[in-house]
Amino acid sequence: MLLTDANMNVTTLVDTSGDAVERYAYDAYGEVTIYEDDWSNAQSADTYSNTILFAGYWRDSRTGLYHVRNRYGRLAGDGCRAV
Asked: What is the mean pLDDT of residues 49-69?
């Protein structure tokens, strides 16, 4: 289950018992930092393969681009269009 903040940013991934297993923080442009369940260590990769992140958008794990409706792009203004 995913927990979100008021902007629909996924902040926590929880297991079936409601315990946090992974936490997420974002910069102003949607770049995610993944932390362990107790915020102690930043991780270099997503342990649980969660692809729904910033503002509830799907993030392509291969490219790091977000799928925003009919476009793929970095939220900082790349404007890359899906082919």
From this structure: 87
